[in-house]
Each structure stands twice: as C-alpha cells, then as structure tokens.
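Posting here for the record, re: NAP.
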Amino acid sequence: MKTLVIGANGQIGRQFCELAHHGGTPIRAMIRHPNQQPWFHERGIETVIADLEGDLRQAFNGCDQAVFTAGSGPHTGPDKTLLIDLYGAIRCIDLAVNASLERFIMVSALRASDPLAAPDKLRPYMAAKFAADAYLRSAKVPHVILKPGRLTDEAPTRQVSTSLAHAPDNTVSRGNVAHSLAYLVQARTLKNREFDLLDGDSSIAMALV
Ligand SMILES: NC(=O)c1ccc[n+]([C@@H]2O[C@H](COP(=O)([O-])OP(=O)(O)OC[C@H]3O[C@@H](n4cnc5c(N)ncnc54)[C@H](OP(=O)(O)O)[C@@H]3O)[C@@H](O)[C@H]2O)c1
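Prediction output follows.
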C-alpha cells in the first residue's frame, strides 16, 4: 500500500518525497502538471496528475495513508485559500474516509487554533487551516496534525521542538518538517495526535511521541 503525497511538488513536498522514498516508504506523488514528472521519475518516484480543484478520486486508489502538504501559497488571494487550503483539504479528507485510509497526515500551521490572533493578512489562511483541522478531527479517518511555525529554508538539523515555550523562536525549516513527515509516515501507531513543530533540540523520534 502507498502513501499519497498531496502537494508533492512543493518545497516541503519534494524534500519529503525524497526522504520517504529513500526510507523505503512506498509513495505516490500527486502533482498538477506533466512537466513536473521528470524530477520524480528520475528518482524512481511514482506520480499521479491531479488538481485539488479537479477530479481527485483516482489518485487515492491503492493508498493507505495520505500526507497533505499542499497550499495555495502567498501569491494568491483569499479565493484560492478557500478553494485549496480549505475546500481542497476537505475533499481529500472525504476521499480518505471513502477509501478507508489508515491515516491522514495534515500539514497545518502553528496557532491555526486562533486565526484572529494572526496579522490581518494571514487571517483568511489561518481560518482555512482552523476549519480544515476541525473537519479532519471529526472525520472518520485516524489523523495526525502537524503544525509548523514560520517556514525557513535553513538546512535541516533534525532537531525539533513541539513547544513554542521551549523553542528559540517561532520558526522551523522546511527540511525539518520534511524529516518529521518522513518519521510520521512510518510511525503508524501514532493516531489522532497533534503536534506544534519548531526548530529545537530534541530528536524527531523523541519529540513526536
Ligand atoms: N509558509 C509558512 O510559513 C507556513 C507555515 C506553516 C505551514 N505552512 C504549510 O506548509 C505547507 C507547504 O509549504 P511549502 O513551503 O512546501 O509550500 P509550496 O512550496 O508553495 O508547496 C505547495 C504545493 O501545493 C501545490 N498546490 C497548490 N495548488 C494546488 C492544486 N490546486 N492542486 C494540487 N496541488 C496544488 C503546489 O503545486 P505546484 O508545485 O504545481 O504549484 C505546491 O506543490 C502548506 O500546507 C502550508 O499551508 C506554511
């Protein structure tokens, strides 16, 4: 059985796909465009072409887990935040339930539980994450919700913290998020758990328990 990676061509997605593939986790990378395929095929990673605004059903065939690390990104407006970060996530969760997936692993965001605490510009995004997380918690699929802080492109240290109070600041490298996801897809006994994620000084296995 495979792990479907939604948002596989993203900055976290690509790093995660490489790590998971090397770690022996069978994955299927969901991407939007055929011209994104060569990067994956050169590494021996299976792809499926699908769009969160289109037909997604076939992407889930033969999968037993999904990782959602897609996002509309900072260069689009609240319309795409609604369609991708919220409704796209909801559609994937529904398909995961229909396909009886063992787990749905969501990349959410630190402080998504309190959208009005975010700066004005980020509030629609945080509200989308809040609602997607709430939908996942009540869905009939076991879940893990990972809530990274502000993402950076620092090299991964594989040392993290799940507590803002014990982290140096509110950031986490995309590499550390990718390593954490690679750990989570193999830690199959972790179900219905939520973790904040920041750069820190604990190993991922010690932090995500
Ligand atoms: N930025 C932050 O500080 C921050 C903090 C906490 C959490 N996050 C979360 O971290 C995750 C990913 O971060 P990242 O830096 O890897 O983002 P990224 O590089 O922008 O990757 C997002 C991916 O989503 C895909 N995507 C967008 N619209 C899609 C659609 N309609 N159908 C299918 N795929 C679609 C993109 O596809 P293309 O490659 O085709 O464009 C891209 O591969 C997101 O869930 C984001 O909400 C971000």
